[in-house]
Task: structure prediction
Amino acid sequence: METITYLETPGVITTPINEMEPSPWESSTTKQEFEPTDDIKEDTKPTPKSKKEDTIAAFAQKLISLSSCIHSLQTQSHLIHFNYEGEDFLAVHKFLKKEYELHQEQFDRVGEYVRSLNYLMPMCEKGLTGAHKKNITHVTKYEGFHMLVVYRKNLEYLGEYSKEIRKAAMKNNSPDIENYLAEIVDNCFKSVWMLNATLRDV
Result:
């Protein structure tokens, strides 16, 4: 039976079930002791990790980090969608709606790729945000120009970061992930072009 590997990501429970404390409602008198047979003991002995497993684990961690970055941009673009004000409000409002919906789709796809590698995603916001070491640039003013400049900068970063992880996908012989990361790169820099054209006359 294939086992699921837990990555050491904040917010992810890595304690084996049999080592957790019993639930308050669990009666110690009714708990049955289980003595594994020799053949079961042999099957459950830990085996040394191969270099391939280490490489896949590192690749999965990169994808989790990418999903964290995408999630941050999804939130940021959605909030700018709400708060942006200006003469071009209708056009920007419509553009950002497409952006945050696209980021949601990207987050879903990257998370599915992590699971296809037999690794788990973080279980909460703490674990997800902690998976990406580089901080995303934050919006600090309710000024339309500032909002879009910050979001454009983050899109450029996401595009470059996706290029970096795409190289890891090539090394791990994952053409499906490699192709989708190329799609993310394409979407990011197309949006950067649109934002540059919008901001040039502001």
About this structure: The mean pLDDT is 83.
